[in-house]
Amino acid sequence: MKKYILITIFAILLSACSSTSSNFVNVSLPNFKPQVPTKIEPIQSNVKISLEPINIEQNNNYSDYFENSVLKLRIEKEIDLLKENLEEQIKTIALLAGYEIDDKQPDYKLKTTVNIYIEEKEIQKANELLGGDFIDSKLGIAFKANSEFINVYDPKNKTDMSSNTKLDSLINLTYPIKSDDGIGMFKTSISSVPTQLNKGLERPAFEIDKSFLAFYKHFLNTLYSNLPKALDLGKPSIKNTQEFNEFNTQDFEEQNTDKIDPNTDNTDNDEEKYPQKNDDGVIIFE
């Protein structure tokens, strides 16, 4: 009888070991392909633009279980890839629009902020004898981006371009978690490699990847369609500035002491001498 019990225990352990070793599947990360023409014809516009690094802001509302899951690790890697590819494509779009990239003395600058919202709902913990502890929940992801095209010499003169994308429905998740209870042999194995997922997570990973790609395409198409063309804008004029090669306070006082009547209203003359600020906006080309 003891012999049969030992054989049964050995079979269970062997099954658990083989199950652990084959519990993972490899799922490649999304491919952020170029979304705009890669052939760039040089345009001699002499209009310069500065492209600031994309600012990523995250607003997360998920459990500590998800924080320590391979899906969270995968999302972090996807955010890095998203930022890297967006910045490369934004540069291409600016060149196609006729701008020269110049971070030192630009005429215009482009600032982009991307907000990523990740929320986990309906979180329930469960357990299986050989499968260990796992979580059933639902995940939502939304993206919101805003780009500001700014006249360097007149910062109030700017164009805002926004792009929003979110999943049509929540993603159903079932993912393993680590547990301190039970025999070590039966503890759940969790990968620390973004492309190595536990079986059953292929579909959720696909839905997450799809949301990143949808935002990537929508944002770039919006920017490509709405970024003002360099030849249409031309070099911006410097507003409300006076240039002096030399300024000698004593000479200035001597030349003007007898010419200015303090009782005279010089409002009209001042307006003619110093034009008022032009607040015309930048035209967006559809």
Task: Quickly describe the structure.
This protein has seven helices and nine strands.
Shape: elongated
What is the N-to-C succession of helices and strands? Answer: HEEEHHEEEEEEHHHH
- Broad structural category: alpha/beta
Mean pLDDT: 78
Unreliable sequence segments: 8-21, 241-260, 267-286
**Number of helix segments?**
7
Number of beta-strand segments: 9
The multimeric state of the shown protein is single chain
Residue share in β-strands:
25-35%
- How much helix is in the residues? 25-40%
Q: Rg to the nearest angstrom?
A: 31 Å
N-to-C terminal Cα separation, in Å? Answer: 82 Å
Largest sheet: 7 strands, mixed
Plain-language structure description:
By secondary structure, the chain is an alpha/beta fold. Helix content is 33%, strand content 28%. The protein is built from seven helices and nine strands. It has helices at residues 2-21, 64-67, 70-96, 202-226, 230-233, 249-256, 267-273, and strands at residues 24-26, 48-51, 55-61, 100-101, 108-128, 132-151, 154-166, 171-176, 196-198. Strands 2, 3, 4, 5, 6, 7 and 8 form a seven-stranded mixed β-sheet that branches. A two-stranded antiparallel ribbon has the order 1-9. β5 (108-128) and β6 (132-151) form a beta hairpin. α3 (70-96) runs parallel beside α4 (202-226). The protein starts with a helix and ends in a 13-residue tail after the last helix. Residues 8-21, 241-260 and 267-286 have low confidence and may be disordered.
